[in-house]
Amino acid sequence: MFRTVAELVEVAEKENILISEVMIRQEMEVKEKTREEVFSEMEKNLDVMEKAIEDSLKGVVSVTGLTGGDAVKVQEYMKENTPLSGNLMMDAVSKAMGTNEVNAAMGTICATPTAGSAGCVPGTLFAVKNQLNPSREQMVRYLFTSGAFGFVVANNAFISGAAGGCQAEVGSAGAMASAAIVEMAGGTPQQSADAFAMTLKNMLGLVCDPVAGLVEVPCVKRNAGGSSLAIVSADMALAGVTSTIPCDEVIGAMYRIGKQMPSSLRETGEGGLADTPTGRLLKQKLFGITSGS
Amino acid sequence: MKFNSVFDIIGPVMVGPSSSHTAGAARIGKAARNLFGKEPKWARIYLYESFAKTYKGHGTDFALAGGLLGFETDDSKMKQALEIARERGLDIEFIEDNAGVDHPNTARLIIGNDTDQLELIGISIGGGKVEITELNGFELRLSGNHPAILIMHNDRFGAIASITKILAKHEINIGHMEVNRKDVGTEALMVIEVDQNVHDSVLKEMEDADHIEQIAKIVS
After folding, report:
1. Is the keyword Ribosomal protein assigned to this protein (chain B) (predicted)?
2. Which of residues 40-69 of B touch A (CB under 8 A)?
3. Each residue's pLDDT tens digit, A20-60
């Protein structure tokens, strides 16, 4: 069983297989399941992701009314304008936000790795799909590759905002997406690792400061940020840019930073954006109580 | 390693909005229900730190209720769990507790009916994955994700051997095992995580073994 990204890349290189294949084989071994069982279980997750994006593009509003409708706005903007950052980028942003809008609206989503960060992996997948034209199998593999990297983070650091801040959540999600984009685009396992490292590096220190304690503001837009960074880092890695600090060391740095964060910046809804005049006002409006700090 | 499956990372499929606060909470509630072995009539649920501060907006309350009702994380009835609990005569009280705890997402559930009671502490460690850290005052580390057998027994020679012998006979593999006792020779708890769900007939066989008091199972 691999414990680090270095081990994961080593296995893939030595056996000349994809990262996704390493993950599939490990899952078969650990769970004593057939390839078909493991594959179809993941395909079901892909179906849920696809459905959530479809739902979001019809327009959703959260129970509080704080979020919703932004995915649609971006799609309309793309139709009428030429986005400065390009269509693929804005499509990913729209679909990542859309997934999280569905989540905030208490719709059905697939946690990747968490619900608050559920937008990055599917958002990027369904955006790059239009350019790379993957087979259904390659789309499912995208999720195994994302999962392989997330597996290392979860076992060596953390993937929840409460434990390690949003760097652990959207940071991990965006980085996982980066690695998967690289594989789908034909990059090497090491390039996946470099892309992962570069995205996570840019997310280090990201606090978890949900306004009124809810997974809405700023979470929905941070999924947009995580997805766009995922694409940029994947392109950088495919261009041959490498991460000076090895991937596992970046994960280690993320862990230590998370440990150093005060609890007010780890999903308590007491610090950061939650503790702004508007953040406090929204909390009072929604729950009739003043912020704790 | 805390996480051993890719589906701990890509998954679970769940009703939003928070995997820690909603899906994890539902799984803690379900673990409590499974250990109690039936639907409770009442529940007193203490919430700590992040759970205490954000549970209303995250639906942690309805998710815990959903779990107690036996719902899976993606059950479409989840959002109505509090109303469904009321209709079914399950009385739930939520208490925000500010005591210090080891993990920010901690819940302590005391559930029961007219005759029995069970107390459990669960933590939600991220991405919907949970651990049960205490049961009826016994410390333990139990993931709610694997089938497990919990055996209250007397701390006597041979009690553990009599159980493992039965498992071996039925070719049931032990993935993780812990034994806890309150004091030498008194009440003890054996927790055995196994690879596959254990049939009731095997549990019955265990109940009849020496020094065994009570058995519950968690199905996965």
Report:
1. no
2. 49-50, 53-54, 56-59
3. 999 999 999 988 899 999 999 999 999 999 999 999 999 99
